[in-house]
Write a structure and sequence with these properties.
Radius of gyration: 16 Å
Shape: globular
Largest sheet: none
Number of helices: 8
Helix content: over 70%
Number of domains: 1
Mean pLDDT: 91
CATH topology: AhpD-like
Length: 146
């Protein structure tokens, strides 16, 4: 099979892709801090093994002023002091929604509520949902053959 046989989302599902991009635009204009969105998207992409998204979110985070040492240690965020309590709560929430859906989300939500309002938590949850979807779409389009 040639590269042209791969899933080409923009060509095969243009309206769906437009919708996904529109959701990202809404989230970018929403109440969640851009720096936190970058950290969450990067961490979820690391977990999901999406090299394309890791590269993209590293670049975007650097462009928006995130420090390289913090980006380097994001993968071990639980074991370093680089991240604020609010960032830690958001990262724990993102990881739970990505890998441990059966986990007790009540305690994680309570920790989030100490730092974020309902609109920010909703935006964070939507951002986590979207990046999980994007990771899977990118892996499928870069590796799947149809």
């Amino acid at each position: 099979m040639s590269q042209h046989d791969r899933l080409q989302l923009a060509k095969s599902a243009p309206e769906a892709m437009k919708g996904l991009v529109a959701v990202e635009s809404v989230l970018a204009a929403g109440p969640l801090d851009a720096g936190l969105r970058h950290l969450v998207k990067l961490r979820v992409s690391q977990i999901n093994g999406c090299a394309h998204c890791v590269d993209m979110h590293l670049r975007e985070a650097r462009q928006d002023g995130e420090s390289q040492p913090r980006l380097d240690r994001l993968v071990v965020w639980r074991n370093v002091e680089d991240f604020t309590p609010a960032e830690r709560a958001a990262l724990a929430w993102a990881e739970a929604l990505t890998t441990r859906l059966g986990e007790d989300l009540d305690s994680l939500h309570a920790a989030l509520s100490e730092h974020f309002g309902a609109e920010e938590i909703a935006a964070l949850t939507a951002s986590v949902t979207m990046i999980n979807g994007w990771n899977r779409l990118m892996v499928a389009s870069l590796h799947a053959r149809f």
